[in-house]
Amino acid sequence: MTADTLAPVDNAILNALKRVSTATLTTQLLNRGLRKTFLVGVRPLNPASASFAAPAYTLRYIPAREDLAVPAVWKNRDYPQRKAIEAVPAGAALVIDCRGELGAGAAGDILIERLKQRGVAAVVSDGALRDTPVLAAMAYPVYCAGAAAPASVVALFAADLQVPIGCAGVAIFPGDILVGDAEGVVAIPRHLAADVARDGTEQERYERFVQSRIKQGRSTFGLYPPDEATLAEYKTWRD
């Protein structure tokens, strides 16, 4: 990690990203050559409380080994799973690499309630979580790929904090910006966040113009994508 990775992100950038849909953000990243940015299969437990934008704080699990992955490990304050709960900075999102494991929950309602109370922005896992009926009732952004009653050590062992991970097939580095909405989560390389926020905002403004014309009966040809005449019309509409 570099000092820049740990530096605060401008709240204006994060607030702008929260107002842009993940669909638009993936298009903006595609325009910049990045295709693998959407966490496939990771969905919000409570879509009504799904919106967030925050820098990633990473936790990496590996497959459980029977002599190490035992309940007693939870008493170790340096065990990465337990350490993460108290170490994730307020305003960051805890993103968990579970290798897609759905047979055990990476965390449950008690640990996630603690994260909420500490001001952590969201929890994102490409595996399962425990206590999902409780989590689904929380007014808090929690994303996962499934539900599992068994505890994490049944199938998982926490190995690292704040290292590059793969989450749902997407490379995520500590400090990358995660944005979530009711559709899912997108990961934005940190150095692109400001440009993506700016251009994503403009894209959605143009798409509101497009929708208004479609509802008037216009064809998509020349409108989406626009030709020169449409761009001139849009400029007048926007101004």
Could you walk me through the main structural features you see in this protein, from its secondary elements to its overall organization?
This protein has 239 residues and is an alpha/beta fold. The protein has 2 domains: 3-190, Glucose Oxidase, domain 1, CATH 3.50.30; 196-238, no CATH class. It is built from 8 helices and 12 strands. It has helices at 3-6, 11-18, 22-31, 80-87, 109-117, 132-136, 193-214, 228-238, and strands at residues 43-44, 52-63, 93-97, 122-125, 128-129, 142-144, 146-147, 156-161, 165-167, 170-172, 177-181, 184-188. The strands form 3 sheets. Strands 1, 2, 3, 4, 6, 8, 11 and 12 form an 8-stranded mixed beta sheet that branches. It has a two-stranded parallel sheet with strand order 5-7. Helix 2 runs parallel beside helix 7 and helix 3 crosses helix 7 (193-214). It is elongated, with a radius of gyration of 20 Å. It starts with a helix and ends with a helix. 40% of the residues are buried. The mean pLDDT is 96.
Radius of gyration: 20 Å
Query: Strand-and-helix sequence, N→C?
Result: HHHEEHEHEEHEEEEEEEHH
How many strands in all? 12
**DSSP helix fraction:** 25-40%
Strand content: 15-25%
In DSSP terms (H or I, runs of 4 or more residues), the helix count works out at: 8
Task: Describe what is shown at a glance.
Helix content is 32%, strand content 22%. It is an alpha/beta fold and 239 residues long. It folds into 2 domains: 3-190, Glucose Oxidase, domain 1 (3-Layer(bba) Sandwich); 196-238, no CATH class.
